[in-house]
Specification:
With about 550 residues, this protein is of the alpha+beta class. Helices cover about 40% and strands about 10% of the residues. It has 17 helices and eleven strands. Helix 2 packs across helix 3. It is extended and about 105 Å long.
Length: about 550
């Protein structure tokens, strides 16, 4: 309860909690009113903000169903999701092992240290690429490659809000293979008491620190609905078994994720209804091209279109077509079923008039309204409208800026997705490969079991991830810029190769070497191997035979 003191007449009152100004009820009410309006809660005036909602309790299941329904039925929702997938994932985010040699071998000479780091990095990159491209080895369902798996994870997490990735061990290879479980199947089981100190919230088991401990997944076994518990980590090994992937941002204490389209479900649905209504109106207009208008004093109408009545052809029009003057005769009369352009009505009664149906549908302002709504949606999703709607009508500078803004978004999303999905998969592959002696990485297993050696573990598992290199607005300028970056040591050949071709530097060099060897056989000298005078810079037209180095799975040269 509020207490007030009048500063004008009662400055020396000892008890400020006693209302001392009791002159009139009006003064008292004014004080209460002033105190109420002194509280700032975001409103300009009472009721201006509207209903205040508490999102502590969210109906995730209805949001998921509505989001998926829109993706299936609504062209706007499907288009937005697909645009994000094609740009964020494309054919898959590519990893390149980047072992930190300074941490692993600090006592070696710098050159030897760098060579060893490059050798191990290239070996792990090649092994992981082969592993990710083999469906039978990578995917638990034996359907998807690593790139396909990324697309599926991102698609369902965007539509449904979240899901979990589960690691299972392939008994044939000893390596992990991966399963994705949609968040729709993660729910709190009936009659299950979690372990002491834990609690289950919407299918996610949490400890007292709100850390994820396990996920409860519903499934059908012999016609009965049961729940299977997937722990986040193995109790004995400490290895990662399952983790949740989210489709959009969330607060730190929120357990489940919301679909990306959750905040715009109604808007997209209504826009689709508007489009359908305008399309139907246009069809009806086309089906009813004209009608007979009668004056109030007109007699009973002749109904000229009833019974497919005989209609006169436009003689002058026919005559113009034939190159002469034609006089309307019975020969010119045609059945309505064989009406030709130029047919006219000749049997209207007095007071009747043929009037065209309204031609102002669809609404001429519909496209402007549609674009305004979609622009707001794109703005909320951080996508330039030009990119989302594939409409590039501005000048080069505007298109370039839109492309640059989208690149900022993509860089952020690729890194977020790589940290959430790609890096954990890569780490589990490398650790399991070391455990099964697929390759030998000195010190990795020791660092894995000893948490005090975390920096060595991180040095072995470091990996750089690269997303789609979107086509440039001006490829020539981009190529010159890449050359300048490499020459100025602001970038690497590998980064620029992946940016322009999607291939690693090693892949590009190997392909170029084979191509140049073939060109040398047929007598063609590539421009890159010519001197300033246009003559071959090398005797055979190519750089020459490089030393071939083969490597075993241990990373040692033979």
């Amino acid at each position: 309860m509020f207490g007030f003191k009048s500063k004008k007449n009662h400055d020396n009152v000892s008890n400020p909690n006693v209302l001392v100004d009791k002159r009139t009820t009006e003064n008292y009410n004014n004080l209460i009113r002033d105190a109420f309006y002194a509280i700032w809660d975001g409103e300009k005036f009472p009721g201006s903000f509207g209903e205040t909602k508490d999102y502590q309790f969210v109906d995730y299941w209805t949001l998921r169903k509505r989001s998926y329904q829109l993706f299936v039925e609504n062209i706007y929702a499907r288009g937005l999701i697909r645009r994000l997938l094609r740009n964020e994932i494309h054919t898959g985010i590519v990893g390149s092992a980047s072992i930190v040699s300074d941490v692993l071998w600090p006592n070696m000479e710098e050159q030897e240290r760098e060579e060893k780091g490059v050798k191990f990095s290239e070996m792990l990159t090649q092994f992981f690429e082969l592993y990710g491209e083999n469906k039978d080895v990578f995917d638990w369902r034996k359907e998807k490659t690593f790139g396909d798996f990324q697309e599926q994870v991102r698609l369902e997490s965007l539509i449904c809000g979240d899901g979990i990735i589960v690691s299972r061990i392939n008994q044939n290879t000893g390596l992990p293979y991966w399963d994705w479980i949609n968040g729709n199947y993660i729910s709190s089981p009936d009659g299950v008491n979690p372990r002491t100190g834990n609690r289950i919230v919407d299918g996610v088991e949490l400890d007292k620190y709100n850390r994820h401990v396990a996920y409860h997944v519903q499934t059908w076994v012999d016609g009965n609905l049961v729940w299977e518990r997937y722990p986040v980590k193995g109790e004995k090994s400490g290895r990662r078994i399952a983790w949740m992937v989210y489709g959009s941002e969330k607060l730190i204490d929120e357990v489940r994720g919301e679909p990306l389209l959750a905040s715009m479900l109604y808007m997209i649905k209504e826009l689709d209804r508007y489009r359908d209504a305008e399309e139907r109106a246009a069809v009806i207009n086309a089906m009813l091209p004209l009608f007979v208008k009668k004056s109030p004093t007109a007699p009973v109408g002749s109904r000229p279109t009833d019974g497919l009545s005989r209609l006169n052809g436009n003689g002058s029009l026919l005559g113009g077509i034939l190159g002469g003057t034609a006089i309307p005769t019975d020969k010119n009369k045609r059945d309505i079923r064989t009406m030709t352009p130029g047919t006219i009505f000749d049997d209207l009664a007095p007071g009747e008039e043929i009037v065209s149906f309204q031609t102002n549908r669809p609404n001429v302002n519909y496209s402007v309204f549609e674009q305004a709504i979609l622009s707001g949606i794109c703005w909320s999703l951080e996508i330039p409208p030009e990119i989302a709607m594939l409409k590039f009508q501005s000048n080069y500078s505007a298109s370039r800026q839109a492309n640059n803004e989208f690149e900022i978004y993509l860089d952020y999303r690729v890194k977020k997705f790589a940290r959430a999905v790609c890096q954990p998969i890569y780490e589990e592959f490398v650790i399991q490969g070391a455990l099964t002696d697929l390759f030998k990485l000195p010190g990795l297993l020791q660092a894995f079991y000893d948490s005090s050696l975390w920096i060595k573990k991180s040095a072995w598992l470091n990996c750089a991830w690269t997303g789609l290199s979107r086509p440039s607005v001006d490829p020539k300028d981009e190529t010159v810029a890449s050359e300048h970056k490499v020459d100025s040591i602001f970038s690497t050949y590998d980064i620029e190769c992946r940016k322009h071709s999607g291939l690693s530097f090693r892949q590009v060099v190997q392909k170029r070497k084979r191509e140049e060897e073939y060109m040398a056989k047929v007598g063609i000298v590539p421009k890159a191997n010519e001197d300033n005078n246009g003559n071959p810079a090398y005797p055979n037209g190519n750089i020459g035979e490089d030393k071939v180095v083969t490597e075993t799975v241990t990373g040692e040269e033979e």
